[in-house]
Amino acid sequence: MDYLQISQKSVPLQCVFHSIRFKVNKGWSKALLLFLCLYVTFYIFIWKIYNKAVSLQQNRKTNDEPNITIT
User: Fold this and answer.
1) Strands (E), 7-63
2) Distance from C-alpha of 60 to C-alpha of 57, rounded to nearest angstrom
3) What is the C-alpha to C-alpha distance for residues 47 and 5, in angstroms, rounded to an integer?
4) What CA–CA distances, in Å, run from 17 to 10, 21, 57?
5) Average pLDDT per run of 10 along the chain, which is 71 residues long?
6) Rounded-to-integer distance, Cα 24 and Cα 8, Å
7) How far apart (Å, rounded) are the C-alpha atoms in residues 57 and 63?
8) How far apart are CA 32 and CA 40, in angstroms?
9) Interior CA angle at 30 toward 27 and 32, to 5°?
10) What is the reported pTM?
11) What was the pLDDT predicted at 34?
């Protein structure tokens, strides 16, 4: 208990809140970066699936149309 009383230093409250805010902001920036990477990856994945579905649908339309040739 004596050791704790000897080692205590006074720290301005502003410094304490600044360090807490810095740590929180640093954590949020990493989380935001991770979220954006996942979001972009998911968006690209969905875009590829959508384009593939559209191209398959267009191929079906062209194959379903009867070929009429007049000679």
Assistant:
1) none
2) 5
3) 62
4) 14, 6, 58
5) 57 64 66 82 91 84 63 58
6) 25
7) 10
8) 12
9) 105
10) 0.43
11) 79
Q: Which residue type does 51 have?
A: N
- Quickly tell me which residue has 């301005």 as its tokens: 12
Residue type, 7: S
- Those residues with Cβ within 8 angstroms of residue 61's Cβ, 6 or more apart along the chain or in another chain: none
**Assigned token pair, 3:** 């050791």
Token reading at 59: 């191929």
Q: Residue 67 corresponds to which tokens in the numbers above?
A: 């070929």
CB-side neighbour CA atoms (13 Å) of 47: 6
Tokens 């080692």 belong to residue: 7
